[in-house]
Prior knowledge:
The protein is mostly helical. Helices cover about 75% and strands about 0% of the residues. It has helices at about 15-20, 25-30, 35-45, 50-75, 80-85, 90-125, 125-140, 150-175, 180-185, 195-205, 210-220, 230-265, 270-280, 290-295, 295-330, 335-385, 390-395, 400-430, 435-460, 480-509; strands at about 5, 220-225.
Amino acid sequence: xxxxxxxxxxxxxxxxxxxxxxxxxxxxxxxxxxxxxxxxxxxxxxxxxxxxxxxxxxxxxxxxxxxxxxxxxxxxxxxxxxxxxxxxxxxxxxxxxxxxxxxxxxxxxxxxxxxxxxxxxxxxxxxxxxxxxxxxxxxxxxxxxxxxxxxxxxxxxxxxxxxxxxxxxxxxxxxxxxxxxxxxxxxxxxxxxxxxxxxxxxxxxxxxxxxxxxxxxxxxxxxxxxxxxxxxxxxxxxxxxxxxxxxxxxxxxxxxxxxxxxxxxxxxxxxxxxxxxxxxxxxxxxxxxxxxxxxxxxxxxxxxxxxxxxxxxxxxxxxxxxxxxxxxxxxxxxxxxxxxxxxxxxxxxxxxxxxxxxxxxxxxxxxxxxxxxxxxxxxxxxxxxxxxxxxxxxxxxxxxxxxxxxxxxxxxxxxxxxxxxxxxxxxxxxxxxxxxxxxxxxxxxxxxxxxxxxxxxxxxxxxxxxxxxxxxxxxxxxxxxxxxxxxxxxxxxxxxxxxxxxxxxxxxx
Length: 509
């Protein structure tokens, strides 16, 4: 990511779109990481096609909010965490930074476990050793940035195609029931029992909070005309390229769920496979591909799992870098940031893999996905407030229909999270199998946390806006503003050059 990508003013819309392709691809990686694969596989095994509508709604919502994130970066030249630092007091920013870092770590845990499982399948490396190795192999992909952002984007896109190429042929071979398949996508339904829990985990695995910080920063890598028309045009192209990337992610997620649902609901399924379906883990899911891919199913599945983990780790590292830079004005070397994040994520992953094995690792992935779902509002609410602000966005603020749609969907997501958290935790507290003293202590700890969660969301929603100079009023053609934008983008380029030199020095040594 050594230099900005110059957008050429050409008449061909398709050729111009090629200049914008990239940020949406990197962002879509988060919707296909090992956490997604784990929750997709189990959702299909437990509910067949019933939860496909969650994927449809989740990725439709994702397109809407990711486009808001891109608009924020395009219109203001600053990413989400930088706006948070200026808008909120220091104490609130520290809370938001901690929550954002927890989100990055929660997203990294499935990637660590997925990489370990892939190495175990391919090379018979013990899972605990694979967990330790997971922090090092990503440096190879990060090293690609010295060849430019475009090369890295192409490699990431190729890795995503590997994941899709593994599951699409299997889905066609499984021949899912078309009627049930369509009803699963378009008719919302939640079965009793684990339906709500699996839906929340699936939603959490789809929409990741750190992605909102990431997208608003990645779009700054495109050098666009700094005019009202130029920004409107860039926003449209970024919306289109995000739609292409997320639609691809939607198809792959649907393929994974359909493969699991079709195989596990087959009345002729073997006893061993039926046992696996009750508790699918990333290391045991290769049995789903055996009929379609034969003896190479395990290896091909492991390669797709490795591709998923590696690509999502790269974007997670960049998200963490931008979060740290925006909230703390602190820049860390990308390889060091990667190892730090991995070290923290490796600790719980290693303990769980040693004590609980693959089943424990699978439960940890579900918990990580639920954490992401609960944390989403702390990135979403500031984003919706900033993109709806005329003071910050000027002519490019959200339209009334877009504002209504995003706020309604956002509050629905928050309501689902609060309902699930309160019912699950209260059910745990009132569980008579637990000692009375333990239930009382749990209540004293959990109830205040839920109250604090709600109070912070209310504060973020209702806090009066900090009035500042509008940085996007291009009608006045302000020279001061143009110079500020050039300075911001030069700084971004310098950051990337610094990162390039750091990676090059690490790889050469």
